[in-house]
Amino acid sequence: MEAIRGTDPGPWSGAAPRRSRGPCGHYRGPGMSVHRHPGRDDGRLRATSWRGDPTVAQVVVRARVTDAEVRALLDELRSRGCTAVVTAALAPPEQQPFLAAGFEEHERLHLLRRDVAPLPARPDGVTLRRARPADHPEVLAVDHLAFPPFWRFDEAALEDALDATPAVRFRVALRPGTSAVAGYAVTGRAGGRGYLQRLAVHPECQRRGLGTALVADGLRWLRRWGAREVLVNTQEANAGALALYEALGFARQPHGLAVLRRALAVGTP
After folding, report:
1. Could you read off the pLDDT of 178-229 as tens digits, one per residue?
2. For the whole model, what pTM was predicted?
3. Cα separation of 191 and 184, whole Å?
4. Are residues 173 and 207 in the same domain?
5. Domain-embedded: residue 240
6. How far is CA 268 from the centre of its chain?
């Protein structure tokens, strides 16, 4: 998802502290894993603390899951003291077992697609460079200004986005005439498909070509490595992001995505 204001996780899917260990941390069971900050794993469901809050879990779906698997995960999270669960962005078929388990729609997202070619022109006068670990505080500060609170990244969420696909490109755009970070993009690639994982531009630097330059850079990288298509999602209310993507040749897909949410109460199903 993207921030012009902001774009959120995932292939689907100021600096904040790393996620602290808490009730929602460290669990593995058949077909699922629940832990503080996962590396890669083979579970179909993965749960981590949401944006540094150890009482709220985010669930990422790696493959189609059953009603029973969702219920088992909720039981485990409840036993560890979690009070709420949110999902990553889910397509309609992925939502069904969660809706059956009492989840409700929290926010709808547009899903957009584009062929990697033809490439858009890159605006003049925009300086991009490879992001470095030392840039993370500035990157997260931009992210917090670009996104509403629910969508803001912390350090661990940024690392999750960087680890979400086998190959990734992480670039920053600089404020004109300075070395300060004014925007950033995380572009992922898995086989022939690319994902614009995150795009954010400082509000003071929007409509100056930084977002266009970051997207164009990601598309060039994807073409170089043989990707044929790219996907991105953005909140339905994010009119600026939607306008940018459509101006760059992305098309809305017939079905969107949704983030689902469910409260958990100890002792209730």
Report:
1. 999 999 999 999 999 999 999 999 999 999 999 999 999 999 999 999 999 9
2. 0.83
3. 23
4. yes
5. yes
6. 31
Q: SS3 string of 42-79? A: CCCEEEEEECCEEEEEEEEECCCCCHHHHHHHHHHHHH
Q: Output phi, psi for 120, to 5 deg.
A: -75, 160
User: In angstroms, what CA-CA distances link 126 with 118, 134, 143, 177?
Assistant: 21, 21, 19, 10
Partners of residue 61 on adjacent β-strands: 45
Q: CB under 8 Å to 184, separation ≥6 — which residues? A: 131, 135, 139, 142, 143, 170, 171, 172, 173, 198, 199, 200, 214
Helices 210-224 and 239-247: angle between axes, nearest 10 degrees? 50
- Going by C-beta distance under 8 Å and a sequence separation of 6 or more, which residues neighbour residue 136? 15, 155, 158
Residue 223 lies inside a defined structural domain of this protein? yes
> Position of tokens 């292939």?
11
Q: Do residues 165 and 232 share a domain?
A: yes
- Give whole-number Cα distances, 23 to 32, 44, 60, 77, 90, in Å: 16, 21, 18, 8, 25
Instruction: Confirm if 67 and 95 have CB atoms less than 8 A apart.
Output: no
Q: How far apart are CA 60 and CA 101, in angstroms?
A: 16
Indicate the pairing of strand 53-61 with strand 84-87.
Answer: parallel
Host domain of residue 184: 2-11+112-252
Q: Is the peptide bond before 118 cis (omega within 30 degrees of 0)?
A: yes
CATH number, domain with residue 127: 3.40.630.30
The tokens of 91 are what?
Answer: 């397509």
